[in-house]
Amino acid sequence: MHADTLAVHGAHGPDAATGAVAPAIHLSTTFERAADGTLPHGFLYARDANPNRAALERVLTTLEGGAAAAAFSSGQAATMAVFQSLAPGDHVVLPESVYYGTRKLMDQVFARWGLTSSCVDMRDAENVARALRVESRLVWMETPSNPLLAVADIARIVELAHGAGAVCAVDNTWATPVGQKPLALGADLVMHSSTKYLGGHGDVMGGALVARADDDLFQRVRTVQTAGGAIAAPFDCWLVVRGIKTLPHRVRVHTANALAVSQFLESHPRVEAVHYPGLSSHPGHAIAARQMSAFGGMVSIQVRGGRDAALAMKARVRLFTRATSLGGPESLIEHRASVESPDSGTPENLLRLSIGLEHPDDLIADLDQALGP
Ligand SMILES: Cc1ncc(COP(=O)(O)O)c(C=O)c1O
To answer: Which residues does a 6 A CB cutoff place in the pocket of ligand 1?
Structure first.
């Protein structure tokens, strides 16, 4: 079946007990045992599993084409679960261009727990080959990356990771399962901040991991989830399940809008560079076109005139909202260097745009007036 259909039907059918078409929210923390001690509905205690979380994990598994999924209270909790599934002394290869919070977790939390890491420019897969060591256990990818939209070749990097005895996890937050299917390209795990496009309305925090196989790696992740307890709450799961029903439609509009905005910005004299993998001028366009079916709604630009010019443009927007995060209906604009750590390397003249669901002409008109004559 197509993603449009799976997104609508992949979590649940009508409720067997009541006929309700929309799902209930199950707040119960505990579940009744039968007289013989068995659990007729398979649920024991809400930290282990809950009907709303099970429904969300089901639809995510289906959409990503995996074997199992685990839903967490945030994207960062999902990323932590992957790092926590490793052992002291293990080595991780990370991309240079990566969500700054992922780097922060590795440098400020997991380095103290004995993980070592190397950051490489994954736009060239051979840099991964050079960074792999005998103790490498994980290659973490993020493509397209936050905030530079760097594109990495998933199939090639998976091949290199597997050849060195490491697993490969891909942060698929920006592409969504509608735009990119890392598991089909050989990746072992897909990570999502469901706070973004999956929830889709800027009103819920969540994270998820989807595994290609229900193997030892996934069981370690499941243990971190259920024993550690950074689980997604029932209402949060319910909201993400609801968001996912319209995900394919939203991604199509986000993508069409982002392409229109990028094409406009690319020809604007006050814009030094536009980073969007859907543009044929993007250095990773050929790889993106091969491994993505939609280029997504995220665009970064570098404004001529440096930091001051970028901040001035950001101050002039009227329709865009000056706020962090992404993936909701409202278009957002953010000066990334201001929110990242000073050593993140993000250019000072870079503005990150989360292109929303407004009409593209209105978005372009706002950016045009904000850039000035
Ligand atoms: C690519 C990417 N991965 C992970 C995260 C972290 O997710 P969360 O904020 O849900 O913890 C973000 C948040 O912006 C992100 O953009």
So the answer is: 74-76, 99, 101, 142, 146, 171, 173-174, 193, 195, 205, 207
